[in-house]
Amino acid sequence: MIAIHFEESYDCKQLYSQLTAYIQKYAEYGLGGAVRAEGEDTIILNYEHKHIDFYDSFHPLLASVLTDYVISSKEDEWLLDIIETMFYFHDEEEQEQILTIARSILEGDRNDLPQMKSFFNRREFIYQAFSTHLEEDTTFYYEPFLTFRLRDYGEILIDCVEMAIDEYMLEQEYQNMIEDFRQFVQFKRPKLEMVYIVHDETFTFYDEHFRRMTREELLFHLQDDLVFEQEVDIEDMVISPLVSMVPRLVHVFSDDPDHGVILSIQAIFQERMKLYPLKAYDKEWS
């Protein structure tokens, strides 16, 4: 018999409901278990199958249900607490944006970020913590377990929030850059009538006569106070030299309309940018 004690009746009620549903669902596959509630703060579990070992059937189910419940009911709460109390973000909108990034990191949706591997297995980490401390006959205290046995998980969440804040600040910097550049090209007199950009793995500039622009020409147009791509060679810059040229029209040829640089050009130049498939460039100018 396993007795799980709760300090919060809500957690007891929710987990009782979930465990009951799972035990009923898997009963037809031979899972021999029973669950009952004692008052509003205790769940009693009994494993009744005599031919299949507890640790091969009921034990992993119980650890999985508890793991999923911790993530669904506690993770956002803990992340928000870290965001506010450790990193002093008190604005609700900022908190929500950082939380959204943190969630995507934990779910493994931000593989563009370094050092992501440690976050991918946080479900397995919690599962193993429950698995280690759940025995066939035991009394289990839920809240003390979360406090003392998931400290390393808490450290993972702190690292995750720190990375999410870094990404949030970069995103804010990017959005400010986009707005500043949009205002600049909107009110600055155009220096060039037209610029063509061909994106075929790399970005290549062409002038209005479709003559490839040289490194020296790009440097000539580049304004130091408009350089956003810091510590990048001029031949690898796109946004800064393009904005410095202040073209009246920008024609972009690419088969990747969702590329970050192209989306940035679109955000800055808006209706002054026209996007074409790469084959249009190959057909007309190759």
Considering the chains and any ligands shown, give keywords for the structure:
286 residues, alpha/beta, 4-stranded mixed sheet, 11 helices, 8 strands, elongated
Question: What is the topology?
Answer:
Layout: E1 2-5, H1 9-27, E2 33-38, E3 42-47, H2 58-85, H3 92-106, H4 117-120, H5 122-133, E4 138-141, H6 142-149, H7 151-187, E5 192-200, E6 202-206, H8 215-221, H9 239-245, E7 247-253, H10 260-269, E8 273-276, H11 278-285
Parallel strand pairs: 1-4, 5-7, 7-8
Antiparallel strand pairs: 1-3, 2-3, 5-6
Helix pairs in contact: 1-2, 2-3, 2-5, 2-7, 3-7, 7-10
Structural classification: alpha/beta
Q: What portion of the residues fall into strands of 2 or more residues?
A: 15-25%
Label the overall shape: elongated
The low-confidence parts are none
Give a quick account of the main beta sheet: strands, pairing sense, barrel closure: 4 strands, mixed
Give the averaged pLDDT, no decimals: 91
Number of helices: 11
List the secondary-structure elements in sequence, H or E.
EHEEHHHHEHHEEHHEHEH
Number of strands: 8
Helical content band: 40-55%
- Identify the quaternary structure here: single chain
Radius of gyration: 28 Å
For the termini, the CA-CA separation is: 77 Å
Question: Major sheet: order of its strands?
Answer: 2-3-1-4
